[in-house]
């Protein structure tokens, strides 16, 4: 049974205190930290890259960096992110023509490989071969590019489609996810939950983390019956 993993998106954190913000999340119960890398090409914004991740990695012992690569030419950054301490390298399927070779390159650098689909990309873009080779599948529930957007509910059926095809795989949702939208995500079968504003802007982030996790674990226990 896939376990609940909470991955707070640091895009909503205070970048001036990034390492401290990551530590605060781990203390609050987060398993992973979601690091949104944007290149100004695949998406209009620029956020951060390998040099910053490398500093965070050194400052936060044991951190699992779930790197969401919103970049054109994702092949280009595998080595830099691996050298920076990335644990999982999640690329967009829209940005590559050879997902299998890219997954192999990510694995060769001892990172987990994730494959993301944007709101207008069907779940079938993840073929059986790609889905089997990947360690995680990411269904975007907003258009990639910035935090704080409204959850797009029509993306949720894609989570259920992927869960039916890949019962044991980590399936992540990202964008507008929080206490108000977690139920549909959990019921559809996602187990890795990214939340930026819903966690960082909460008066008590650990309460939000605990409740998101409980909702996912309850749903997963129901599936396994
Ligand atoms: C959007 C990013 C998300 C974003 C999520 O492009 O991929 O990770 O930071 O933020 P919230 O949870 O605020 O929608
Ligand atoms: Zn993201």
From TrEMBL:
It catalyses: D-ribulose 5-phosphate = D-xylulose 5-phosphate. The keyword tRNA processing does not apply. Binds 1 divalent metal cation per subunit. Substrate binds at residues 9, 68, 145-148, 176, 196-197. Its EC number is 5.1.3.1. Pathway: Carbohydrate degradation; pentose phosphate pathway; D-xylulose 5-phosphate from D-ribulose 5-phosphate (non-oxidative stage): step 1/1. A divalent metal cation binds at residues 34, 36, 68, 174. Its cofactor is Zn(2+); Mn(2+); Co(2+); Fe(2+). One of its GO terms (molecular function) is metal ion binding. InterPro entries: Aldolase_TIM, Ribul_P_3_epim, Ribul_P_3_epim-like, RibuloseP-bd_barrel. Belongs to the ribulose-phosphate 3-epimerase family. This is Ribulose-phosphate 3-epimerase. It comes from Suillus subaureus.
């Amino acid at each position: 049974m896939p376990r609940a993993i909470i991955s707070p998106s640091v895009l909503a954190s205070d970048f001036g205190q990034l390492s401290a913000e990551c530590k605060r999340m781990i203390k609050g119960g987060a398993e992973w930290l979601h690091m949104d890398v944007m290149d100004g090409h695949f998406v209009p914004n620029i956020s951060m890259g390998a040099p910053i991740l490398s500093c965070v990695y050194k400052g936060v012992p044991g951190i699992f960096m779930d790197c969401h690569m919103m970049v054109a030419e994702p092949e280009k950054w595998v080595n830099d992110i691996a050298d920076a301490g990335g644990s999982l390298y999640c690329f967009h399927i829209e940005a590559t023509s050879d997902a299998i070779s890219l997954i192999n390159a990510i694995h060769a650098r001892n990172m987990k490989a994730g494959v993301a689909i944007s709101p207008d990309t069907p779940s079938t873009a993840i073929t059986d071969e790609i889905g089997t080779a990947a360690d995680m599948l990411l269904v975007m529930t907003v258009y990639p590019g910035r935090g704080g957007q409204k959850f797009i509910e029509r993306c949720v059926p894609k989570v259920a489609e992927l869960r039916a095809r890949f019962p044991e795989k980590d399936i992540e949702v990202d964008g507008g996810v929080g206490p108000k939208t977690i139920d549909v995500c959990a019921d559809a079968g996602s187990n890795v939950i990214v939340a930026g504003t819903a966690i960082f802007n909460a008066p008590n982030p650990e309460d939000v983390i605990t409740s998101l996790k409980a909702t996912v674990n309850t749903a997963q226990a129901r599936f396994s019956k």
